[in-house]
Design brief:
The chain has 324 residues and is α/β, with parallel strands linked by helices. It has 2 domains: 130 residues, NAD(P)-binding Rossmann-like Domain (Rossmann fold, 3-Layer(aba) Sandwich), CATH 3.40.50; 177 residues, Rossmann fold. It is 34% helix and 15% strand. The chain has 12 helices and 13 strands. The chain has a 7-stranded parallel β-sheet, with helices on both faces. It has a 6-stranded mixed β-sheet with strand order 2-1-3-4-5-13. Helix 3 links the parallel strand 3 and strand 4. It is globular and about 65 Å long.
Length: 324
């Protein structure tokens, strides 16, 4: 491990080990893959990276802090499998001369499909009805249809844009908000640009597709939930911390909103006593909206291609370049 060119310190649950991307990485040089849990501990992460020049980051629970960069002095590049980089101290990476790359857009259509699936499953109460029928009941409660309803989309990157397309195909009116204020782009998608509060007041469903940044952390607080319809459903396939945890739990418990479809959480994996598990008006999935064979294959191969290009001196999908 100490002399590996490439370290994959956080392949748990494992997707990289033995894959086509792994074989491609080994052609570049010695590649060390760790498939055990524990990368969330800084000292353990440092040990696993060792003197590798490149780290391929698989899971967001591995946090690449300034302390990690300071200890791993040979490290010059972090190649992230996925789009999110909130687990990496980007300022420290640039300051210490590292390049950080990601794989944007690879999982976009799969995540968008999952967002719509959570919207439908929550609105139509499919998990609850399925469970009741298996218990011998024949439930007749009212369900929520999408045709004629309003969807509010926050974030109109590749995922959000695809959600707009799918929702319009279901006969929904779509209101959208862009962090960049790009109203022309929103209109080109067939959605109507709207202010944050207007969307929250009018939407029957709200779907989050924002990057987690200091500005978007806690994007939804008690104030925002108070604006939403009591019949509204929240869908989050982006990052758990976009919504204030206590505010979300209270809104769901007290019926300020009707329900939520959640693929992301403040703490992952969820602990057995997490209060969200006790809420009947929530549909849960374990942060795997992009877990399709096609997405995993293509994303991992692109992460390794980013390593190849970096080693050639022509990095691609660059999030941060060295500041010195």
């Amino acid at each position: 491990m100490a002399d590996a060119l490439i370290a994959v310190p956080d392949d748990f649950p494992s997707v990289f080990d033995g894959s086509a991307a792994h074989q491609r990485a080994k052609k570049l040089g010695e590649t060390h893959v760790v498939t055990a849990r524990g990368a969330d501990d800084e000292a353990e992460l440092i040990k696993r990276i060792g003197r590798a020049r490149v780290a391929v980051n698989i899971r967001a629970h591995a946090r690449f802090t300034d302390g990690v960069f300071a200890a791993c002095r040979a490290l010059k590049m972090v190649s992230v499998w996925g789009t999110g980089t909130d687990n990496i101290d980007l300022e420290a990476a640039g300051r210490r001369g590292l390049t950080v790359c990601n794989t944007p857009g690879v999982n976009a259509f799969a995540v968008a499909e999952h967002a719509i699936a959570l919207m439908l499953a929550t609105g139509r109460k499919i998990p609850r009805i399925d469970r009741e029928m298996r218990g011998g009941a024949w439930p007749r409660e009212m369900l929520t249809q999408c045709l004629g309803k309003t969807l509010g989309v926050f974030g109109t990157g590749t995922i959000g844009a695809r959600v707009v397309t799918l929702a319009r195909a279901l006969g929904m009116e779509v209101l959208a908000w862009s962090a960049r204020g790009d109203e022309a782009h929103i209109k080109s998608l067939g959605a109507r640009p709207a202010a944050k509060d207007e969307i929250l007041r009018e939407a029957d469903f709200v779907s989050l597709h924002l990057r987690l940044t200091p500005e978007t952390r806690g994007f939804l607080t008690r104030r925002e939930f108070a604006l939403m319809k009591k019949t509204a459903i929240l869908v989050n396939t982006a990052r758990g911390a976009l919504a204030d945890r206590d505010a979300l739990l209270d809104a769901l418990r007290q019926g300020r909103i009707a329900g939520a479809g959640l693929d992301v959480f403040h703490e992952e994996p969820l602990k057995p006593d997490d209060p969200v598990l006790a809420l009947a008006n929530v549909v849960l999935s374990p942060h795997h909206a992009g877990q399709t064979p096609e997405v995993i294959r293509d994303g991992l191969l692109r992460a390794v291609a980013n390593v190849e290009n970096f080693l050639k001196g022509a990095p691609t999908d660059v999030v941060v370049a060295p500041l010195r």
